[in-house]
Amino acid sequence: MKKLTSTDNLDNLLSEHEHSLLFFSASWCGPCQSMTPVIENVSNAMRERLNIIKVDVDTSQNDAIDYGIRSVPTLLLVKNNEIVAQQIGGIPPIQLMQWIEQYI
Question: Which of 29, 38, 64, 72 is catalytic?
Answer without folding.
Answer: 29
